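Holo model, flavin-adenine dinucleotide. Inputs:
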Amino acid sequence: MTVSKDLVNGLNVARFQGQRHKTDNLKTEKICLPGTECLVKSHVSLASFTSFRVGGPAEWLVAPKHLNELEASFEWAINRDLPITLLGAGSNLLISDRGLSGLVICTRHLRYTYFDQETGQVTAAAGEPLVRLAWRAAELGWSGLEWAVGIPGSVGGSVVMNAGAHTGCMADILVNAHVLSPNGSLEILTPEKLGYNYRTSLLQGDKRLVTQATFQLKPGADPAKVIATTAQHLKQRHSTQPYNKPSCGSVFRNPNPHKAGWLIEQTGLKGYRIGGATVAERHANFILNCGGAKANDIFQLIHYVQHQVERHWSLSLQPEVKILGEFQPI
Ligand SMILES: Cc1cc2nc3c(=O)[nH]c(=O)nc-3n(C[C@H](O)[C@H](O)[C@H](O)COP(=O)(O)OP(=O)(O)OC[C@H]3O[C@@H](n4cnc5c(N)ncnc54)[C@H](O)[C@@H]3O)c2cc1C
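Output:
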């Protein structure tokens, strides 16, 4: 069985579960972060914060709107010695049914976008949806983000994941990312400092938070042409990938030179089901929540697929999805 790094981190989380159970029956508490109007809330279900639509409660959750609120969130968690989890759009996460201990910092309310006509650069806050940014750029006749239209992540999460599609990826267009450390220090990092590779960066598994990113695009194109290319990419994805049920997109990284989806399909796993989780018929590297799935169903299915592919091909598939929290042992 292959255990991802986040899963190993998840096992650390298990140490806190015993303590948290004592407070399970408590009502939601709301605490105002010192010096701000930002609320930290207890026992917030994370299912609606992930594209899989599964996951238990966050012990504490905060969704800051401004940098000072982010800084106060880090300080609040550090002062209480709480573990911190960073959450973007939750489109690449499998969160345990038992939830997460400590403070979850969600970036969904960090929003702004600025298109600089002189430089052709667009700066977007961490919580901006990548899809929205891609359409905005297309409507302005700025090319360079057409490939991103089917990726339902946030700008921050996509910088961290080095999200990509149709031969484009974040590493190709990133000028810099502003990164806030839990101790309050802010760095401006260029792609060279981020150790980019296929769907990886040095920021993965890190506690530093991307607050905003600047991308180099090409302004001055005919908006109709950029919109047409963007729409074409979306159409192609909808014809090859299942967008009608909750998922995290591709579950496994492609083990070069193979495609994970092809290996899973050839192993005969399309349609294989555990509880409410199924290997998609349309694209075997997708696992779908077909209604009422538990995070644990998805977790078990991930490991079943890994095991079967390893048996057939002697290849170990590595999850692209980040697995957080405590799961039942396989
Ligand atoms: C239908 C579907 C299709 C998809 N297609 C693609 C695709 O074509 N290509 C592709 O690359 N991905 C794809 N994905 C996966 C996913 O959308 C991307 O990985 C996306 O970039 C994740 O962004 P997010 O904001 O959802 O991150 P999350 O899932 O919230 O988090 C992912 C990781 O980044 C960390 N993180 C999030 N925000 C920040 C931040 N601001 N600072 C620091 N760390 C942060 C989290 O802690 C976590 O480790 C798809 C997903 C779905 C559901």
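The domain at 113-239 is CATH 3.30.465.10 (Uridine Diphospho-n-acetylenolpyruvylglucosamine Reductase; domain 3). The longest strand covers residues 209-216.
Archived with the compound record.
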